[in-house]
Amino acid sequence: MSAPDNAELLAVAVAAARAAAPELVERFARGAVNVTSKSTDTDLVSDADLAAERTIRALLERERPDDAIMGEEGDDTPGTTGLRWVVDPLDGTIDYLYGHPQWCVSVACEGRAGVVLDPIRDELFAVAVGQAPTLNGAPLPPASTVEELGSALVATGFGYAADVRAAQAAIVARVLPAVRDIRRAGSAALDLAWIAAGRLDAYYEHGVKPWDIAAGVLLCESAGLHVEPLAGGDGLPQGILAAPAGLADELLTLIGS
Prior knowledge:
Blueprint: H1 6-30, E1 36-37, E2 44-45, H2 47-63, E3 68-71, E4 84-91, H3 93-98, E5 104-109, E6 113-118, E7 123-128, E8 134-135, E9 138-139, E10 153-155, H4 162-175, E11 181-183, H5 188-196, E12 202-206, H6 210-222, E13 226-230, E14 239-243, H7 245-255
Parallel strand pairs: 3-4, 10-11, 10-12
Antiparallel strand pairs: 1-2, 4-5, 5-6, 6-7, 7-8, 8-9, 12-14, 13-14
Helix pairs in contact: 1-2, 5-6
């Protein structure tokens, strides 16, 4: 069997994300149950997360049985093809549990293709590397080209552990006076999709996991944005920054990592 091209992998990612969406939307409407905590009391997982990941894994195992899978809620599955799927079945669980419509499904074939699906708004952000990113099949609106930090709408996110939040608060205290405003919406994958689509000017966050950003980073890179890992340190885990090239250095200086 010939190796799949990126467009073929994107089709699988789209199918996987869309397969998980109906149950997530239905549970969102009636309220998720069986909520438990993970790393801290504020890091929650629900039956909706688990059901969505099972649905995605089942489709991937059917369509791409020899590929590896990394999911937020399940064990890593090894593969033999050199391809790995990175899955966040429900990014923005806290928003989801509180009834805030800022959550999504993120599915990526690492380094090759990815989708961020917002079922509530019926928006599918998609990219196959080597092709232009799309929103619901149409060209993605252009990303920001802002070069003045004072004109930038900057998104970020916060961790679950109190000591990490304290370090993140110190960074926000430096960034907020220097930018147009800060947004903290609660879904890293959607933040990245929205900056790729020009709805935000920049995004940074410490403590993101591979499944949070795998699809979003591909979208941002394909949209021509500067994407750079954040090293962390001084109580902060590693992170990611995405911004227009003309804004990145100044924002990195403020963030300090």
